[in-house]
Every structure is written in structure tokens, then in C-alpha cells.
Amino acid sequence: xxxxxxxxxxxxxxxxxxxxxxxxxxxxxxxxxxxxxxAFLFLVPFLWMLSSSLKNSVxxxxxxxxxxxxxxxxxxxxxxxxxxxxxxxxxxxxxxVVLATIVGQLAVVTxxxxxxxxxxxxxxxxxxxxxxxxSMVPGQLLLVPRFMFFQEIGxxxxxxxxxxxxxxxxFSTFLLxxxxxxxxxxxxxAARIDGAGEWxxxxxxxLPLARPILAALAILIFDATWNDYETALIMITDESKYTIxxxxxxxxxxxxxxxxxxxxxxSVSSLIPILIVFLIFQKQFMRSMARAGLR
Length: 295
What we know:
With 295 residues, this protein is mostly helical. Helix content is 68%, strand content 0%.
């Protein structure tokens, strides 16, 4: 230690400062413990499902609960993927519906959000409020009209009956409208002065600014469409067109009861794509949701 450092006076912390730091540290660890407990409670059902998917159906509800199966019954997963009712077909149908819905909905709601957020036209606010009011209609009330409509035009019992209703979304349009409304108008005005058309302004100026929120919306659309059971139940009757939620109901025993081992193995398998997508894009998702909340 140098002589100058030794001669420097020691800084004494005031008692009030130390008490405040202790309170902050205690609050930090308390919040962490509470969040860990809540996360654990949400994780327990998934852990039970994962454990039960590796057991025989008769051993699933044995008490005391055996969290680590002994022996591990891998045949549940083998039957799910290579059996008579393989989930490969259900996965391909769900993937096709999800990809088409994501691309179609993002294209529709991005244009609608830009029109409501950046453009100016007569009756804009009234039209937007009327559009938001449609969100108060429960989705279950629309299932029968959709069934009759698609049956009339010949699209009933096709994957189009699952894709087309998902192309419009009030929530997604509202979120993008808020994003575009908060974007600087000066950028578009400067481009118009330079002779750029509205489509060029949209594609080259405002659309790149919306990439983070579009990524977040893509995750939400993926999750909602991948797990949609009601629409598939009403619109699809041909088993070859079943999506994953509907396909999981086909794991039945000969007496008509659900074969829990294969059903849980199929449920675990259906969660893997959702977990992979969220883990890859979670940073963009959280950042976009935080920005949307601030706006």
C-alpha cells in the first residue's frame, strides 16, 4: 500500500445508510424467494406430467407419488410417435396452421395498425372504437356462425377453416396501432417531401421499427394457435386433418377411457416447440412487452 493511500481518511458509513442497505437487501431476497415459490408452484404440474408420461397408466396415481419413475416406460413415447395414431400427422397439420396464421395475421394487423396509427382519414377514431368493441363478443358465440359460413362456402373440414379466422385480431391490431402512433411522424413527412409513396414509407421506414413487437406477437400467435382446441373441435371431423389438441383425444383405450400414459407423453411432446420458441425469443418478447406497456 502506498503512503498516499495510507494517508487517505477512511469513509465511515452512517448508521442510517447501513440500515437502508440492509432493508434493500432483505427486500431483494424476499422478492426472490416469493418469485421462486410462485415459479415452483407453476412448475409442479409440468413436472408431474413429465414424470407420469414415463410410467404405466396404472402407476400414475399411486401414492405416495413417485417423482422418478422406476422403471422408465419409454414405450409411451414410442407409441405416440410410431403407433397406429402417430402424432407426426397432427404435428404437421398444427405446424401448417400455425405458420399460415402467423404470416397472415402479421400481414393483416400490421397494415391495419399502420393505418390507424399513422394515417389520417375521416371517421378514423369512430371506426377504431367500433373495431375495439368487437373484442367484447365472446369467441364461443362466433363458432356456430363460422361453422355455417364455412359449410356454405365449402371450406368446412379443411385446414382453411382453422387458418382464416386467425387472420384478424383485435389485440394485435391495437398493439401495433399503439406502436405506430408513438413512432415519429417526421420520418414519414420527410420521406413524402422526397417523393416517397405510402407503401415505400411503410416498408422501408416504419416496418423495420416494428420488428421487435412483431416478434413478440408471433410468439403469442404461435402459442394461441398451437393450443386452439375449440375451433378444431367444431371445424374438423376428418382425423387426417386433426391438429395436436384434437389429436391428443384419440389416445383412448379399448373400453373408451383415456390411456393416460400415451396421452401425457403426447402432451409433453406438444409443449416442446412452445418452449423452444419462447427460450429463443424470450429477450425480444420481454423487451417488446415492456415497451408496449410504457406506451
